[in-house]
Design goal:
5 domains, alpha/beta, 46% helix, CRISPR-associated helicase Cas3, Rossmann fold, seven-stranded mixed β-sheet, 26 strands, 801 residues, single chain, 34 helices, globular, Hypothetical protein af1432
Length: 801
């Protein structure tokens, strides 16, 4: 027989040996109590067996580009079955049933997404698929070159005596042994479920198996992909980082102010509270109090102390709710590092979101691009990772192969969660328990940071890093003015509005429709003032430039949607905010007299606007009606609310939101039960069910079908579109083609807006490209579809199809 291959250019034995090497490296880096409870011999065979199914004659024909039955060339299921069979014959099943089942499922799914661990129990015992499964596995097994595989696995360190029993061409005993194992496991699980119900055992806190499944799946797929794409383990070698945050602040804060004095007080207070005894820390400070640098300083010093006392090098993961503020915060942290390091490379700090530029700077002479760089970035192989809620929480509570690969990098990490209140209230209990379990089982630390700390963690499970109330009482930058009783239309509001020439104004509205209408009215009414507009209908390239100009004080008046609500450091004298849940209102308040240096006290006017279909607040916060009701009830007692009173009312708000009689945590409870039972993905379920799969967890609420529109704004956009058109029509290796499309799509993203079905139907409809992926607004016809001030969408009586 020819050499047994795993890839066109690689022997199977070489691949298995190197995946084992990568697996041991990643396992060492992910050292935690969860992995320490798993026998090393099991992990060894787990990595070695993961691709052994490639040894069939069917796969070997396929890898050499010969025609073969598609069902029989698949290898993951056979690999999982042979892994289990090895341990059945090795007679070390007893006491390891659960972990072996989890490992087998990880092998079964290592080229796909997680669905439900219960599927592995049914694999050869489902009546409808029984014969097909058994027949295919038996045929594949019989096609293996038994002597060659036995020899290679023996050379990789597996027991020859056991291997001789496995690879003896006795497919009948092979299948029977597996069926017996799965049948026994199903009975045991059924008994456990009955026992659990009778004993009224609360299972939603028993997340050990969930995290075990996730970390093993991650170790396997990360090792597999790294071996193929990265190759050199030096590229993922851990490095020391130095960061003198205190010195950086001293150099940056040149001008003394009362706010800087408070920042220094808070910095010193947090500095004194650095201890490794807690897993969950909360950092609550008013907006503008320097939480980014304060938390980063805490993380760097905690990392140093953990290294001294545990010998482990902890990764720092900085998580933010919005992609738009990643560059801003990453730039600050990178500047801190540059004060202590001659050069800052990718293994020290990287940004990761779905539009990340795919390049990895290994050293001053080496720039890695393409698939290798993508594997390094998406695998979080940096000491400091700056990322989004979407990336972090969709990994912590995820099921997709592409997301879960980095799960093991969450182990031994200090995770700073900025603006944690941005998590939807319905997920508070789910996220609270998941983070608590994660920190404990994976030896990690959480820093939950916000100006308005929600009740996600119980008081006895978290450590408060500073006495935040004293900072609120010493600040009096802003007052909230309650105008909720004066309900108005957009026209009525604009007509009544008086804007003082000496003040700057920010209007934050709930919908694009209402914000565009107000912008148009104000532009006509106040034509002598500089005014601009912000919403997601502006392409990212335009938004970034406009936000930069706003920061530079180039505009007196800005009309925006909620995209400026958190993390965007802009400052105005007066803010008008259409009704929203209280945390959003307080985030908006952080855009008024942010630095506290203005001659005017910041004003935040809370208004309630209505359109033809009711209140705009009800339109955008459909799933948060209770949040709005509680907000209105709490605010009705105040005509004016001064900043020192903010924490009093926000505490009341979160107390009420945590009361399950007022705000149900049914979704959280059902998701927790889904996690405990390792139900990662499902389609047939209802939100009223007691248990739901993890794919129901969505940070960004699905608002229906989305359409992507590419807007050819300039010459660069034209070049990018031409590049996309050429690539999309090329016929070549599918993986290379996919990589090229992914690379060009990142460049295209600067010119793309996402629109929903309502927006699509309201405006002129641009043509769709030949692949029916993007709607295309060419430069020559841009006026038909795009307004330079308000972005995509030109209202017209003529609709172009």
């Amino acid at each position: 027989m020819q050499e047994i291959l795993s890839h066109p250019d690689r022997r199977l034995k070489t691949h298995l040996s190197e995946v084992l090497h990568w697996g041991n490296l990643y396992k060492k880096n992910a050292d935690c109590k969860l992995l320490n409870n798993i026998n090393d011999d099991l992990l060894y065979s787990f990595f070695v067996f993961h691709d052994i199914g490639k040894s069939t004659s069917f796969f070997q024909k396929y890898i050499r580009h010969e025609d073969v039955n598609s069902d029989l060339k698949s290898h993951a299921a056979l690999s999982a079955m042979l892994f289990l069979y090895y341990h059945i014959l090795k007679d070390d099943i007893t006491g390891n049933e659960e972990i072996l089942e989890i490992m087998a499922y990880a092998i079964l799914k290592h080229h796909g997404n997680l669905e439900s661990v219960s599927d592995i129990n049914d694999y050869l015992t489902r009546s409808s698929l029984e014969n097909i499964d058994k027949e295919n596995i038996a045929i594949q097994y019989k096609s293996i070159d038994m002597e060659s595989v036995k020899k290679e696995l023996s050379e990789l360190g597996l027991e020859l005596v056991v291997l001789s029993k496995i690879f003896n061409n006795d497919e009948t005993f092979f299948i029977k042994s597996l069926v017996d194992f799965f049948t026994k496991r199903r009975r045991e699980k059924s008994r456990d479920r009955i026992k659990s119900k009778r004993g009224n055992i609360e299972t939603d806190t028993n997340l050990k198996n969930y995290f075990t499944m996730q970390i093993l799946f991650s170790l396997l797929i990360d090792s597999d992909k790294s071996q193929v794409s990265v190759g050199d383990t030096e590229l993922v070698k851990r490095v020391e980082i130095k960061a003198d945050v205190e010195n950086f602040i001293k150099k940056r804060e040149a001008m003394p102010s009362s706010l800087n004095v408070l920042r220094s007080m808070a910095f010193e207070e947090v500095n004194k509270n650095i201890n490794i005894d807690s897993n969950i820390y909360t950092l609550t400070l008013p907006t503008g109090m320097g939480k980014t640098l304060n938390s980063f300083n805490f993380a760097v010093k905690l990392r140093r102390k953990l290294l001294e006392q545990t010998g482990k090098t902890y990764r720092i993961i900085y998580v933010m709710p919005f992609m738009s503020i990643i560059d801003q915060n990453a730039g600050v942290i990178e500047n801190v590092l540059k004060m202590s390091h001659k050069n800052v490379y990718s293994n020290m700090i990287c940004k990761h979101h779905h539009l990340t530029e795919i390049e990895w700077v290994a050293n001053e002479n080496t720039l890695i691009e393409g698939n290798n760089a993508q594997i390094l970035i998406e695998g979080w192989n940096s000491e400091i990772v700056i990322t989004t809620f979407q990336q972090f929480f969709s990994t912590l509570a995820g099921h997709k192969n592409s997301m879960q690969r980095k799960f093991s990098k969450l182990s031994n990490s200090i995770v700073i969660i900025d603006e944690i209140q941005a998590i939807p209230v319905k997920y508070y209990k789910f996220i609270g328990k998941l983070l608590t379990g994660y920190a404990d089982l994976m030896d990690s630390k959480i820093v939950a940071m916000t100006a308005t700390q929600p009740h996600i963690f119980s008081h006895d499970s978290s450590t408060q890093l500073c006495e935040y109330k004293k900072y609120y009482t010493q600040l009096n930058r802003t007052k909230i003015i309650n105008e909720l009783n004066n309900i108005r239309t957009i026209d009525e509001f604009a007509d009544e509005l008086e804007c003082a020439e000496s003040k700057t104004y920010l209007f934050i509205l709930n919908t694009i429709e209402s914000s565009k209408k107000l912008y148009t009215l104000l532009k006509e009414k106040i034509s002598d003032r500089s005014i601009t507009y912000l919403s997601t209908l502006l392409p990212p390239k335009v938004r970034v430039k406009r936000i930069s100009d706003i920061k530079a004080k180039k505009y007196d008046i800005v009309v925006s949607t909620q995209l400026v609500e958190a993390g965007v450091d802009i400052d105005f004298n007066v803010v008008y905010r259409d009704l929203a849940p209280l945390p959003s209102i307080f985030q908006s308040a952080g855009r008024a007299n942010r630095e506290g240096t203005g001659i005017y006290k910041g004003e935040v006017h809370i208004i309630k606007l209505k359109g033809n279909n009711g209140f705009y607040a009800d339109t955008v916060y459909k799933s948060a009606k209770t949040d709005l009701d509680i907000t209105e009830k709490l605010l009705k007692d105040y005509d004016i609310l001064n900043e020192p009173e903010f924490m009093l009312i926000i505490d009341k708000y979160f107390d009420k939101m945590a009361d399950e009689n007022i705000k149900s945590q049914h979704v959280s409870n059902a998701l927790l039960k889904g996690a405990v039972s390792q139900w990662f993905y499902g389609e047939s379920y209802s939100l009223s069910d007691e248990k739901i799969p993890l794919n129901d967890f969505e940070l960004i609420e699905d608002k229906g079908e989305k359409f992507q529109v590419f807007i050819e704004l300039d010459d660069e956009a034209e070049l990018i579109w031409n590049e996309y058109s050429i690539i999309s029509n090329q016929t070549e290796d599918k993986w290379e083609h996919k990589a090229k499309l992914k690379a060009v799509s990142r460049k295209m993203s600067e010119y793309i807006v996402d629109i929903n079905i309502t927006t699509k139907s309201r405006y002129n409809k641009p043509p769709v490209d030949g692949n029916k992926v993007y709607y295309y607004v060419g430069m020559s016809e841009i006026d038909r579809y795009y307004n330079a001030e308000t972005g995509y969408g030109v209202e017209s009586d003529v609709h172009f199809f």
